Amino acid sequence: MGAPTLPVHSTVRVKLETERATTLAESPAVPLTLEGSSMLHQIFRFDWKAWRALSPAERQRIAQVAISRLTTINQPPADNPSHQTVLFSQLGHKGDLMLIHVRDSVEALNRVELELAQTELYDYLDQTYSYLSVVELGLYESSAKTYSALSARDIQPHSPEWNAAIRETIERQSTAMATRLHPTIPDAKYACFYPMSRKRDEEVNWYLESMSDRQRMMHEHGMIGRRYADEVRQIISASIGLDDWEWGVDLFANDPVVFKRLIYEMRFDEVSAKYALFGTFYVGVRLPIENLTNWLTGTIQTG
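and the corresponding structure tokens:
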């Protein structure tokens, strides 16, 4: 009697695990990453019924206090221009207002939450969603070059010499990419935010692919984004271990249809078509803080 035949999914899993073991034996499979500013997205639903029950004088007073507090919260220190709190009028049933906060630490984001909660306006806000993340840049190309150079010198992964070289690479790249790690929110009219993850199914698992294959796919994915660089600005933030998804994506543009065109085209590349999982999309119209009073009367003034 012959040996039993493994099911197809088991065969695929064994093949992937064998390839992964081979890759790990040669060098780490994990690409280096750079981390920068901390980000918090807050989505609120506004209690219009309770708000309209107030007198006009009370509404005006509460709005002015909220604007003053938001203006103070948004004021960046001289040494941290990326410190920002930006307000958007949210479209659809998912909420009414979207706040995007950028700070130098998660602790600073927590302070923002607490400061906002002290305003009277907060009594009319119901937070329906939030997302915590840290701006991230993946270093697939630099990782491959660094790992290869260290292996060529017979330096063992995770040895003191290896770790010192990795620290040097991260420090050098962090300095060179400081403006991307600590971005300012673009002064665009529209924002689109969504969380996403990579698939980890039994037969399709991003994290079991070789680093060279992941590097190739991410390069092809990035080339599509570059074609839209004049129309869309993006901020990619990582949330593994911080929130329910793995990354948060912020897109900013003066024409919201560009979001549709860019994301639609990206759906056809391999990394998205095969490995991407997308969360809920949130789209908002830029709302300058000083125009909040108008918004509270049902008038949208974006500039």
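(Above: one complete record from the training split.) Residues 66 and 130 are 20 Å apart (CA to CA).
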